[in-house]
């Protein structure tokens, strides 16, 4: 598996043929002309989190279109991966990415994005008590329209991450719901995540962590 840094570099290469936009249409209340000028004049990888926050959080709502979003996508994803607390939250970015229809992308681009997301899961597994982080990323992946199964499967090799994710959702799951407020009950992947928590391997991880066994149920 590629490192996060290498996968981000590959993401830029995969989107390297997307032309830089000449203009960005947007509501003046959501993004100022000065900010648009910054987005259009700075090299992509030099755009700061502050430069991109207004655009990224309003994309497809009051600002931008597919052509310009695809240009900024590598930098938006990079910042999302590396800047804790950046707005927009990653599920918001996931919804925006879905508007570009990743299923229709060239496979090189789609694979590059998936490599970054797998690297994010791997990096998150190294963080203690990372439930809220992985919770947001799994929600974001589903909102992108990407299959969540490979990422859930990857998590199974990291019991501490599974437990953090479970503890984040355990109360809501009593009502057959997920806890992240960005989820929509109809989102692709929603039911798959609920079913995964009840799968044999994940159930075993949870039971062992709480000192339970099959006979104690």
Structure description:
- This protein has two domains: 1-104, no CATH class; 125-217, no CATH class.
- The protein is an all-alpha fold.
- Helix 2 packs across helix 3 (49-58) and helix 5 (90-98) runs parallel beside helix 7 (131-143).
- The protein has helices at 4-14, 33-41, 49-58, 66-82, 90-98, 107-124, 131-143, 149-155, 159-173, 190-197, 200-209.
- It contains eleven helices and no strands.
Produce a short descriptive summary.
The protein has two domains: 1-104, no CATH class; 125-217, no CATH class. The longest helix is centred in the middle third of the chain and has 18 residues, at 107-124. The protein has eleven helices and no strands.
Which descriptors apply to this entry?
mainly alpha; 217 residues
Morphology: elongated
Give the structural class: mainly alpha
N-to-C order of helices and strands: HHHHHHHHHHH
Strand count, sense and barrel status of the largest sheet are: none
> Span from first to last CA?
38 Å
In round numbers, the mean pLDDT is 93
Question: Spans of 5+ residues with little confidence (pLDDT < 50)?
Answer: none
Helices, strands, pairings?
Blueprint lengths: L3 H11 L18 H9 L7 H10 L7 H17 L7 H9 L8 H18 L6 H13 L5 H7 L3 H15 L16 H8 L2 H10 L8
Helix pairs in contact: 1-6, 2-3, 5-7, 6-7, 7-9, 9-11
